[in-house]
Write a structure and sequence with these properties.
Elements: E1 2-3, E2 6-7, E3 11-13, E4 20-23, E5 34-37, H1 40-48, H2 55-71, H3 80-91, H4 99-112, H5 117-156, E6 162-166, H6 182-190, E7 195-200, H7 207-219, E8 223-226, H8 231-236, E9 242-245, E10 249-251, E11 256-259, H9 262-271, E12 276-279, E13 285-286, H10 292-295, E14 300-301, H11 304-307, E15 308-313, E16 316-321, E17 331-332, E18 334-337, E19 344-347, E20 350-352, H12 356-362
Parallel strand pairs: 6-7, 6-9, 7-8, 9-12, 10-13, 12-19
Antiparallel strand pairs: 1-2, 3-4, 4-5, 10-11, 11-18, 14-17, 15-16, 19-20
Helix pairs in contact: 1-2, 2-3, 2-4, 2-5, 3-4, 4-5, 5-6
This protein binds 5-S-methyl-1-O-phosphono-5-thio-D-ribulose (MRU).
5-S-methyl-1-O-phosphono-5-thio-D-ribulose (MRU) binds at residues 53-56, 97, 168, 170, 174-175, 179-180, 207, 246-248, 258-259, 333.
């Protein structure tokens, strides 16, 4: 996507193909810093500490991690056992987004096949790049499919502003291009539909107020940052036409894990008869799971992310303590929205209702899982 007229992605490979370059998202919007990931340890750190975040981008970074494992393997010929061990380490980066394990398994599968080290490295790179470009194309299609929903609301409102509420950052920073929840928003904007986005700040790491607001602003999309608790009030007063969020893992039955607070938005949307859509690529479905509440692992992050708030003050990024020094905090990073609260899914191959039957209509090959 474009930032100040320049095309940029949150991840790319250096020209000599030895270093994975990522935007360090911890510092946005106040600093634009590119970090170099040179080995598997760097990749794990970047995933754990949220230099990169968002399910599809975590997957893509992990895919490049497998490539770096092969590229930097000391023992030649590269042993498959070594690659399998490195992949296990990468998979432990973060627990909730299924894209991580999905991408690692895909690249590993291709890398184990060839005999020679150079062929293994080439296979890892090819598969990682294939995943990148597939995710880009999938997000583009999610945009095309979701556009119809926004266009329909605009038509019903006689071309008045369509107000969309989103939670966290499911934008191009969380993917590679377009985003998932933001893809229909960008598509509607390009079509000239009058839209406005309510951006939940998304405590504690503020992916909404830091990242979604930055992305939308750079693109020229009208938006307003709101506190996480404002959504219900706006919905009660007719100020939200549709909610679109992303997902970190969705079960075959349609239960959705996403950033903490998503569930409360879905409840409020249901109570106010407002469509609640989840935009996701097929890589975010976990075909093995049926019960999201019982089966999706919810990441617990460092309580200091809640206790301290990061901001920009007189030219520097600073962290300040909010609660009493001695008060404990609990940092649940995600929650699960049950399928019954989801109006539908916007996926690369279409729109469907949040039922196993309807999901399987779009993914008949996954029926047998
Ligand atoms: O903790 P994060 O920033 O990785 O959480 C990200 C989210 O919850 C996103 O909504 C989700 O990954 C979908 S991204 C297209």
């Amino acid at each position: 996507m474009k930032v100040d007229g320049k095309h940029i992605r949150p991840i790319w490979l250096s020209q000599d193909l030895k270093v994975v370059k990522v935007i360090d998202q911890r510092l946005l919007p106040h600093r634009f810093v590119v970090a170099d990931l040179k080995n598997v340890d760097d990749v794990i750190k970047a995933i754990k500490e949220t230099y990169v975040r968002g399910a599809p981008l975590i997957g893509v970074t992990a895919a490049y991690g497998v490539y770096l494992a092969a590229l930097n393997a000391k023992d030649k010929p590269i042993s498959n056992d070594f690659l399998i061990k490195e992949c296990k380490r990468i998979k432990f980066g973060r627990p909730t987004a299924i894209n991580l394990a999905w991408a690692v398994d895909k690249v590993l599968h291709e890398t184990l096949k060839p005999e020679t080290s150079s062929e293994k490295i080439k296979a890892a790179l090819n598969e990682a790049e294939r995943i990148v470009e597939t995710e880009v194309e999938n997000c583009r299609k999610i945009g095309e499919n979701g556009l119809n929903l926004i266009a329909e609301i605009s038509r019903k409102k006689g071309n008045q502003t369509v107000n969309i509420l989103t939670h966290c950052n499911a934008g191009w920073l969380a993917c590679v291009e377009y985003g998932t929840a933001t893809a229909p928003i960008y598509a509607a904007f390009e079509k000239g539909i009058d839209i406005h986005v309510w951006v939940d700040e998304t405590r504690p790491l503020n992916q909404g107020s830091r990242l979604t607001a930055w992305e939308l602003g750079k693109h020229g999309v009208k938006h307003t940052v709101i506190v996480d608790n404002a959504g219900g009030h706006l919905m009660q007063h007719g100020m939200v036409d549709i909610v679109i969020v992303g997902s970190d893992r969705t079960t075959r039955t349609g239960d959705v894990a996403n950033k903490i607070g998503t569930y409360l938005k879905a409840l409020a949307a249901m109570d106010n008869n407002i469509p609640f859509y989840v935009a996701l690529p097929s890589s975010t479905f976990d075909w093995d799971l049926k019960d999201g509440l019982k089966e999706i692992p919810i990441e617990m992050r460092d309580p200091d992310e809640i206790r301290y708030v990061q901001g920009f003050d007189r030219g520097a990024i600073k962290s300040v303590l909010i609660p009493p020094e001695t008060s404990p905090a609990a940092n649940f990073a995600f929650d699960v929205t049950p399928a019954r609260l989801v109006t539908g899914f916007i996926i690369e191959n279409g729109i469907c209702r949040a039922t196993e039957q309807d999901i399987m209509r779009l993914f008949p090959e996954s029926k047998s899982h």
